Amino acid sequence: MKKSNFRAKQGNKVPRAKRAGSNFRAKQGNKVPRAKRAGSNFRAKQGNKVPRAKRAGSYFEKLVKEGIGLVPEKFLAMLENVAIVIENEPTAEQKRELKLRKDDFLLGLYEGVPQNKRGPNYGMVLPDKITIFKKPIVSYAESDEEMRQIVKNTVWHEIAHHFGSSEESVCAAEIKRRKK
User: pLDDT of 98-109, one tens digit each?
Assistant: First the structure.
């Protein structure tokens, strides 16, 4: 008999014949159509409604560019020596430095010297880096519109750190902005 790659939590009602040879990974209670269960590379996450095509790299890049484009011009003009990049997920080193637990997720990260901390002799340095993490955003978003909002908010959040805002002040500003 062919070895199965099926990994599921207790309670999944997929018949044994359908599990053999499948790369299906599921969570308890997941209702996946029969055609998707048998012998496919389908990876399901309960509640994830973002179509596969919309999770592609070029689409995600477009969302990040949109998010940058929505930042007010006066702030974009003040961005200095910063690169905005997309990575699939944080590195082990980044997770370790931030003391993230296994169940924590990180949507974006600013690494560098904030503008308000730069002295008069600041120069001749590599650019600061804003990283937007694709995999956590895609897995968290339940729709295309929610993914667009998360990307936009993450870009704004990390740009605020570039200008020197603390995590607490950025979160307070986000709450205030959402109430409008």
Answer: 999 888 889 999
